[in-house]
Amino acid sequence: MNTVTTPMVTLSADFIKKTQDEVTPHWGELGWVTYKRTYARWLPEQQRTEEWPETVKRVVEGNINLDPRLQTGAVADQVVADLTQEAQNLYRLVYGLAATPSGRNLWISGTDYQHRNGDALNNCWFIAVRPQPYGDSHLVPDYLEQDQAAVSMPFSFMFDQLMKGGGVGFSVTPNNVRQMPRVDRQIDLTIVIDSRSASYDASVALGAVDRTDWMQHHSLAKTRYYRLPDTREGWVLANANMIDAHFNASNPEGQAQVVLDISDIRPKDAPIHGFGGTASGPMPLVEMLFDINQILNDAAGRKLSAVDCTDMGNLIGKTVVAGNVRRSAELALGGAEDDDFITMKQDKDKLYHHRWASNNSVAVDSQFADYQPIADSIQHNGEPGIVNLGLSRDYGRLIDGRQPDIDGEVEGTNPCGEISLSNGEPCNLFEVFPSVAEEQGWQLEDAFALGARYTKRVTFSHYDWEVSRKVIQKNRRIGVSMSGIQDWILKTFSQRVVTGFEAKKDTETGQTFMQPIYNQAAVKRFNDLFAAVVQADKTYSETLGCQPSIKHTTVKPSGTVAKLAGVSEGMHFHYSRYLIQRIRFQDSDPLLPALKACGYKVEPDVYSQNTMCVEFPVKAAHADQSAFASAGEVSMAEQFATQAFLQTYWSDNAVSCTVTFQPKEGAEISRLLLQYRHTIKSTSLLPYSGADFEQAPKEPIDEATYNQKRAEISADVAVKFAEMTGHHDQKDVELVDQSDCASGACPIR
To answer: Which residue, of 181, 322, 358, 366, is most buried by count of CB atoms within 10 Å of its CB?
Structure first.
């Protein structure tokens, strides 16, 4: 089921029809196709996927009805009237693609799943890897008391949230890993499966054994036996049982054998309810359990290292994404002087096996100065990223000055780095596309205020984990973002925000550096918009009788959502002035005939079977302006300076940025990281690559080639698809290999 019982605040058919007549959605070149294959839910009664007006109605009603005033017995008519008006404003804003909530909200808001599992509305989470109690949570292993700290807890939290579709940042910094107890014993792990299971042969091939045969020859008396129910929680608890058996505190009987029974797990290709899609079968779980058990067995007699813990987290992430059923993102945060952690991806065998599953960063503070080893590693493989926890704890926006412990419990970040988080806390996102909003007649202050109220309501969802409920209630953290920033700056100020540089002397190091000069009109405008978000939160918090949000604004990377409106992603510069964007589809996708009929180039994917590759010619906004710069043209120094501008005047959380650099700029990395140690809360760097391989996702082209390819496109895909199919679609069809997580952006489901 995709709908819930009738909400208290609803949007009428007349209002939606009026909005459709008055507002035209600002679809980007790839927008409608990306929406149709990413956020449009299946409507079983009609045997088709949603259309955009239906999606926006579902999302807005799902959010507006989270207002806690509507959960009380008697609700004043004026409250319903006010919220109905707000819902209409939100609908117009999102329908026109002047703003959107996070991709997670586009997919989950307003569904039954939202009401069963409020966690699903949040993109990403953070957990510290150290023994923790499960608390009053939706799952607690039966051998533990709720208040008993266990080594398995952070891995269970991670596994659970990844399987719900969220990304997870996790900390393996020295202060966390040193709290891990010694691994007390090796465990003999046996996985049994009934011969009647459709997954029997494949599971046995991976090391499982016949259940009947094993039971006939062995006793369960001295084993830890767990029969997995066919649920997400069953997978999590199986892993917890195995992990905790290695430690005396959670295995006081000293049992040395764990038996996990996977007979009840649904087979490969069986449907998954709630999130949709089909199951992978138990095989990825079997492989993961044996691999994690081996790590723990190898560590018997000593404490786990940061690398061990990261490997365990990566094996969980690998399992979640197995079979392209779900998307996942992880960020591992380690110590800045932990050479084993920094270089762990240089082991190519383990990189290809599981270490690809996380982006890795190191935690620093503003006193840290030895950036050269980190810079060398970045040039080698684009990692690690940098997370300055000291700045996150003591600063909101940099312009507001040091405020000691304003966010003092911050321990890490989400996988994309735009939100600094406390243990168990999620990011909570909404973004405005300022240039589109202004084109459609919005006062930007009003658009951003709606975003603040939207995210505030998300904090009143039902959350499964006690550690999350407590920190959300305490912080009420929101993250109102903007995307298409480069487009809006060029349109509004006719120049980039960095207008030049001037030489300054670093009073701490004695070195001379180039300090950026900023457009002062931009400084004022960003200040004003920040104030509007803070005021909207303050007013709504007073109305609801809750804490004001600890922080309010951010810049997220916005990969997929930015494609909907066709704007530049987050703060990033467009990849190129003109480019071919390639998207991959299942070869049975009913969109393909419509794309081909419209004139798009459709050809078999050279890397994957049963996959087709479609080319979309794209022109960046303002590509022909003299002030325009693409990611392939703009200097690394200007990108750092732009991120610093946004951290100073806009974001009190953090700013997600992947700085691209040319090979000749590699020697500058260490110097720039040192220069911005007091300014930038998190950053990552990657070498800029053009069309380095066949059918590259993005290929720069010149204007003539763009015009030629654009001239070959003869019709609108949405219109053609409706003509050819009568709007009837196919269930569980998704874009292939389009996870934003691969490039550091947040997961979309």
So the answer is: 358
